[in-house]
Structures are given as C-alpha cells and as structure tokens.
Amino acid sequence: MSINLKNLISVFNAEWTGSDTDTFIDHVSIDSRSLQNGSQTLFIALSGVNNDAHLYISELIEKGVQNFVVQYIPENVKGKANFLVVKNTLKALQELAAYYRDLFDIPVIGLTGSNGKTIVKEWLNFLLSPDYNIIRSPKSYNSQVGVPLSVIAINEKHNLGIFEAGISTVNEMVNLEKIIKPSIGVLTSIGSAHDEGFENAEQKIKEKLQLFKKSKVIVYQKNKLVDQCLADFCAEYPLPERTLFSWSFTDDLASVYILKKETQDDITTIQYQYNDEIFNLEIPFSDSASIENTISCLLVLLYFKYDFEVIQSRVKLLYPVEMRLEVKNGIHNCSLIDDSYSSDFQSLKIALDFLESQKKNASKTVILSDIFQSGFSNEELYSKVSQLISDNKIHRVIGIGPTISSFKDKFANSTMFQNTADFINEIERFDFNNETILIKGARSFQFEEIVSLLEEKTHETVLEINLDAITHNFNYFKSKLKPDVKMMVMVKAFGYGNGGLEIAKLLEHHKVNYLGVAFADEGISLKNGGIKLPIMVLNPESTSFPSIIQYQLEPEIYSLKGLNAFLKIAREKNLKDYPIHIKMDTGMHRLGFENNTIDELIATLKGNSTVRVQSILSHLATSDDPQYFDFVRQQIALFEKLSSKLMTELNINPIRHTLNTSGISNFPDAQYNMVRLGIGLYGVSNDPAEQKYLENVGTLKSIISQVRTIPAGDSVGYGRRFMADRETKIATIPIGYADGIARLWGNEVGYVTIKNQKAKIVGSVCMDMLMVNVSHIDCKEGDSVIIFGESPTVIEMAAALKTIPYEIMTSISQRVKRVFFR
Ligand SMILES: *Cc1c(COP(=O)(O)O)cnc(C)c1O
C-alpha cells in the first residue's frame, strides 16, 4: 500500500498536529512489539479497556515511527511526531480500511457463519488459486480489528479477495460490511457459537446477513428460518440482480439438492442435482462438518462456472486446515514455531511478529519455502521478503524451493536448497541449538517433516495453553475494574500449572502492574527469564531474604519476626526505601498481622527509612460463597480499619488490595487501588453464570498407544476392576496418576474425549497409563485424546472428585510438556 497522509486527514476527519503531511505510508500497525514498524508506518493506537497503545508511543518514536493515529497526544511525546487525533482509533482503523477497499474494484467473497468460516476460506483459496491472484484474511483474522488489517493488505495485482467476518453481538456487522463489501456472500454453518450475544437464532442470522448488502449472490444451506430471514433481508436491501444460491440434504427446491451421501474409508461420495443434472462428487472426509464446508465451496465453484471435472480434481485434494501457530520445544534447547501449512506474504508478516513475541533465545532462524500468490512479481516479492527478514533481525535464513533459491543474493547469511529432501539430507550440518526457529512453508513443501526432525522427542502427552484465551480472560476481569485500579496477577505454582514464564511475558505485554508468586524461587526464575515487572512474594522464608533483595523481589511481611529479620538484612546492605507489602489477617487465619500486633508493627515502622510500605493487603476466605458473604463484609471492614490506622499513624499512602478472582466479581466496592487476579485468568470462575464469559486456557492432550478388543468376561487393569460384560474395545493412553490424573477419576467415574466422543476410563488409573472404553468410537493408534479442556472441563472433574479446579490444574506434573499457542 502507499497512501498519502494528507488524504487520511479527511478520511478520519482528524485533527492534525505535526510537520509533514506530504508523507507516504506503506504499512499500518497496531502492534507496538512488531519489528516491522518503521518510518513509513502509520501506527494506530488502539485503546481498549484492556491495553492502551498510547502508552507505547514514546518507545515507538525512539524506534523511528513518525506517524500516529491517536485519541489524545500523551504529554511526553507532544511535538515529537505527526499525530492525527481522532475520537475513536478503532473506528479510524475501520474507516481507513473501508476507504482503502474502495480503491479496488475486484470480486470479493465474504464469509460469515458460526462455524467453518476459516476452513471454507482456506479451501476456497486452495480451490481457486490456480486461476486467481487471491488476497485472503490470514489465519482467522475476522474481528473488528482483524478484518480491517486483512483488507488493507490488498494490492494492485490481486484479482480476487476472500475475507471472513466474525461477530459476537448485534450492530457489529455494519462496520465489517463497509470494509469487506463482498460481491459474493457465503453463509457457512449456523450453530450455537456466540449465542450469548443474541436474543435468539433469528436475530443472530439477521445480523450476519448484514454482510451481504451488496452481494450479488448469497450461498447458504437452505432451511426455513434462514429462508425467512433472507426474504426479510432482501426486502430491506433490494438489489436488482441478486441470486439466492442454496443447497440442502432434504429440500429439493434448493439450487443444489444432495440426494445421497455415503462414506467409505474416510471418503464420502455425495450425489447432487444441479440444473437438472446429477453428479457424484468424492470428498476426502467423513465428518459432517467437513462435508458441509466442502459443499459450501462446491457452490462457489459452481457460481464461478467450473466444469465438474475440474471441481472433482481439485476437491479431491482438500486437506485438514491447521489454523494456528504453535510453539514447540525443539532439539538442543531450540523453540520451534510451526507454520508448515501456508506460505504467503501476509501470513509471513504475522508469523514474524509471532516469532518476535515468542522468542526464548536471542538468535532467530527462519526456514522458508517459495512464496505463492503474493500478487507481486517475484523480483518485487523477494525484495520485500528480504526487507522483512532484515527488519525482523533474523540471524539466518534457510530457503527451500527453486524460486527463493534464485534470489539468494537478496538474503544475508542464507543457505538455499532446491527442495525439502535436499535440506533434510544436510540438516545435521546446521547444528541447530539455542535458537528460535520459524518453519514456514507452503503445504506442497511438506515442512511437517522438518518439524518432526527438529522437535524434541518426548512422550506424547502435552498441556496446550491458549495464550489468546488468557488475554481474553484478563481483559474480561480488567473490564470490571474502576479506572486507575491496578492489577496484580497471581502466577504462583507455575501460573496455576499453566506455565509461569510464558504467561508472565504475556502479562508484561498487557502492562499488568504486579505479579504475585508464593516463593522466592518462583520469582527468581521469572527475573532470570527477563521479567521486569515488580513481583510480590507471598511466603518469603527468612533464609531467602538475601536472594529476594538480590533479585529485587518484594516480600510480603506478615509477622514482627519476619519484619525484624528482613530489616536486619536490609540494614546490613544499607538499603533505603525497600518496598515491602504488609499482610493483615482479617479472618482467613493463615498469614498476617492481627489486630493486637498492629501497635508494635507501627512502632517498628515509624521513622524507618530502610523499608517502604508499598502496599497493605489481606486475603478473603469466602468471596466465592454467598452463604458467607457477611463474613467477607466483616473482613473488608476490619481491613479498612487496620489499614487506615496504619496509614494514619505512619502517614503513608500505599496501595491497598484484598480481592481475589471471586472478590472481583462479587465485591466491586472493595477494589481499593489494586486487585489480585488468580484462577479467573486461567479460565475458571467459581460462579457458573460468569463461567460462560471466560475461555478455556489449558487442554491436556495425549494419544492412543494401543487399541484392542477383549471378549465378554475379560477384565482390564490392576485388580481386575473392570469386567467386560460384552465384547469391548479398549484404548490405552500414556498418562497416569504420576502425571496428575487422580486415581479417583478412574473406574468409570471419569472420561476422556476422542474424536469428539466420550470414552469412559475403565479399570484403575495406573502410574503412567490409563485405559478407556472406545467400543463406540472409530479410532486407532496415534489418534489424539483430550484428557481435559472443553470436555471434560476441570470444573466438572473437580465436582466429581470432590475437590476444586485449582487442585486439578496445579497437580499436572512438570513432566508434562507445556505447549503455547495463539
Ligand atoms: C492465590 C491467591 C490469590 C488469587 O486467588 P484466586 O482465587 O485464584 O483468584 C489472591 N491472593 C492471595 C494472597 C493468594 O494466595
């Protein structure tokens, strides 16, 4: 893109301050961490309840960014850059995209629906790419922010766009419609996803249809409700030549009527009638979601007037879509970012940003295949790629493919190979160690083989952590805070079992104010991992005081003995104003100063300049239990009294905090100046009504090691505690109580999920294995198994095991690898 800033002033109706309006921008960014930000970047400072990008502007100016769209100009950067001041920066981003979209007159496919948007988009891209230069949304960029970012990547060479639009409530589609303006509309499957945001299914469908105001054709699965909504929609937004192009398994009035569907060996043949002719199409899937998504694609191909033979030859090659970027542990202490399924310019930009945000090692390597469908000439494309690689400070590049090889000159420190096999032959000589490696290639290059060679071999059980879900949950709780209330996040016990350092890094980016850990060791490993945030240690032992000071951790002080011990060491080291946190016992009776020790506490602290009371805190015992809410109120009242006394007598004004997760939800009046978020960040609420607003963070996964069928009368496992009363198919899974799976969860109390179906645990859970009944499931060795996550949830496990989700989460052994993804 190349846009003159001058034009944008009127697009945004912005107020301009700065020197130079005659600047061209070629890049729009909302991510302050991106190394792609530079002098030609227009940085749009989004400002949510969660994370205010205005805070990063001075850093960005230092890095050379000159042009900003802002809602206000922060004091410290006045006069230092060009600013376009607008009322709402998100709206400006959307206006920019809508303006930019209008510069291109190309056909655009717009996809919406509850499920399948991203898959249908990826497949349409695959099916149409032999004939078009396609621009599409990267990954699932379908939100109020993702859609504009996708659309501003269109360039002159593209002759087809495919964009998806996702909404969660009413009045959102209007904005996205203006940006995508699809000429071809596709409504994918309408399920129950995001139902909370709508009054009923009709309202949800009508909202989604808003995307198709300018669409000349609308592809959808025919049913009564959708037909009805479409009739209303077409009456409200008439277009002279609009085609409703429908399909159905049951209604022969549909444009494409599916007469038959038969599955054999993972291949499904559908027989359909179209324009009075009958066709048999083979689809390489057996599950109904994939079949429906393929049919949506079929209709688009029919609309584009493809012959049946071409359709069949391309549909046969459809593949499961991997939609996310995964971080994996590699050999010799490397980390791998596995993006071995796509290679286009836009997704390379995203992957490089992700690489930067996830890098654990100083050194960065990229393994990259030829890039397809950029819309640029090869010369232009590889110049741009080389620029991107050098902006991102990549240390070495391994290029694979005839085209990228021919541009070797453009890449510093690069090695090129004609094909994947040649590289694999020589993989040893690269001596990969202590580096973060992005592996990014088009499907045809089969980079999954590279990933599997570079991946650390461990047993197959992993706990997958969804970093986006953590962000979502964080934002949810943050939105409940009054302005200026700070947030401490508890990352004790390895972030409640989910991974301490990775989560701390994410929280640091979200500008959390404090982290809380239980022991000094935990804080030290965070500091060693590069965390700069202040860290409070809840339970500092006196022996750890020297290292607490060495690593600048902040101790919670809960007794006179502890205070005096800390003061002694602090004085020896000549410290001044060292931050400490004073804990009050207001009824929990765990740690803290009680009422009768306050006077002595005050006497010790009065006039003391060695330490400074950074905060005063207390902990609630029953903030999750309505039956004891009166008790909470007493605790809060006592906290108010004790902390006020301390503040008056010492003449100090520290941070005060007493709410944990349930406290944030149930006692909004006691937020004081800070709250301490714990379990909620990890996706668990103690209140079922609130649970639906949180996203699942951890999914514990394993695989099937072996499958066997046993006859009636045989038993399974130690003690023969499962007796088969009929022929039974049994699968063995390599996870046991040593990994943290409670034995009480065995013997048909608990279950795992395989291929979206429940499989009961039969017999006793062993140390490293458990067995499940899979008689009703079509599965084989190597298939993936979900131990917990969406189903079962840790909440339902905890209920069955008569414990709390905290215990389930923190029990997962450290031998289980944690894998982080977005
Ligand atoms: C663990 C802990 C929290 C967080 O509690 P959640 O219920 O997980 O939100 C807050 N404060 C203290 C002192 C804690 O020990």
Describe this structure in words.
Helix 4 (117-128) packs across helix 9, helix 7 crosses helix 8 (224-236) and helix 26 packs across helix 27 (805-811). The model has no long low-confidence stretch (mean pLDDT 93). The protein folds into 5 domains: 3-89, MurE/MurF, N-terminal domain (Udp-n-acetylmuramoylalanyl-d-glutamate--2,6- Diaminopimelate Ligase, Chain: A, domain 1, 3-Layer(aba) Sandwich), CATH 3.40.1390; 104-315, UDP-N-acetylmuramoyl-L-alanine:D-glutamate ligase (3-Layer(aba) Sandwich); 326-457, Protein-Tyrosine Phosphatase, Chain A, CATH 3.90.190; 464-690, TIM Barrel (Alpha-Beta Barrel); 698-821, Lyase, Ornithine Decarboxylase, Chain A, domain 1 (Beta Barrel), CATH 2.40.37. By secondary structure, the chain is α/β, with parallel strands linked by helices. The protein is globular and about 95 Å long. Strand 27, helix 21 (560-572) and strand 28 (578-584) form a beta-alpha-beta unit. The protein has a 9-stranded mixed beta sheet. The chain has a 9-stranded mixed beta sheet with strand order 33-36-39-38-37-40-32-23-41. An 8-stranded parallel beta sheet has the order 30-29-28-27-26-25-24-31. It contains 27 helices and 41 strands. The site of pyridoxal-5'-phosphate has 10 residues, from strand 31. Pyridoxal-5'-phosphate binds at residues 490, 538, 619, 660-661, 676-680.
